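Attaching the record inline, Q. Sequence:
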Amino acid sequence: MKNLKKFVFFLLLVLLGALVPLAAQSGQPAGDKAQKIFQAGKDAIYKKEWSQAVKQWESFNFQFPKSQWGAEPHYWLAYSLNQAAKESGDFDKQTVAREKAMAEIEQLLQRFGESSWASDARMLRIELAEYLSAAGKTQYKKYITGSAENGSGSDMDVKLVALDALLQMDEEKALPILKKIIKENKDKNIRAKAIFVLSQHDDPSIPPLLGEVARTDSDPYVREQAIFWLGQEGSEAGLRILIDLYTGLQDRKLREKVLFAFSQNESDASFRKLQEVAKSDPDLGLREKAIFWIGQSGNKAAPGALLDMYKANSDLELKKKIIFSLGQLDDEQGMTILKEIATGNSDDRLKAEAVFWIGQNGGEASANLLKALYDGNTSFAVKEKILFSLSQNDSQAALKHLFAIARNEKNPELKKKAVFWIGQADSEEAAKFLQQLIDQE
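Structure, as predicted:
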């Protein structure tokens, strides 16, 4: 996850709402020729035909330098040049295209600095500067450092994008600025975005800061974001902080977020913590949440852990949650345990739950298991549940088992149930079987 720079940069642009719509600004009606070229440029962008888009926007800006659209054509020319550079395999051509795009952005900002397109232009300028700096054109680095160190209010989003880029170049300069934003900015959305930027980078000081935010920030959403990114961070230090948070936090919703964060950390230590909560937390709801995340964890120890908890607990609702989690396992061992529950000495309600989740597994093997459970059960309620589960299994084996039950079942109510579910099958074979039953009558 770490340092997937271009993906993160794009994701951050989406997060910050920087992808602007392809809509013209209001103004006086344009002449037919201007309108035609303008629309051709838009169409090329929609189709991602970047060379054609560059051609159309260059033509438009040359012929109509004072058009009603103001900054917009300049933005789309710079944008198209950058996209064309990304698709070019020639390093020199990439650099030339991006320098042309940078010049277009500079012209836009000089002429239309108060335009609604100015913020988007500054975002794009940072991306261009990052590429050009990496290509050895270090004179463009100033646009990254300048935007990172300055900017407030409406330009704060630009500042955060610049900080994300600066972290790749000069972590010592960028980290203190980000940390200050997280601790001091009054806008909760800005603090949350700064946490996102910070979380994408490796530095030993980041997990403790996220832990501090999770404990002390004034806004619950910002605290949740800090917990979420601690879970994604994946280090041992981050896990220790999450464990301390779970113990120290009083807010139940935040503790639920910590449980989710445990589930995102693939270490054995995080799995053990989920087990501990599932077994002994005084809050039954949090125990249920921990059981759910154990079932989602993919840990090879999950089936055994869930079975141990099932045997150790007497609470009916908690046992149902354990059965649910067993049903979520992509593991034959989970199905084996569900079969044991369905055929053992469990409460009929628990047997019915196990049958349901066996049925959700689908396929011929599941259908055969359901038929075996039907033949081995005496409970009307459980057999009724098995009939339903067979009806939800779209294998031929399931339909044939329903036919057999409809023919041989002695209990008239169960026989009716089997016939009913056969009638719900969209199958010529089912229709023929029902006709045979009618003819026998």
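Confidence is low (pLDDT under 50) at residues 1-29. Residues 266-330 form a domain with the Leucine-rich Repeat Variant fold (CATH 1.25.10).

More tomorrow.
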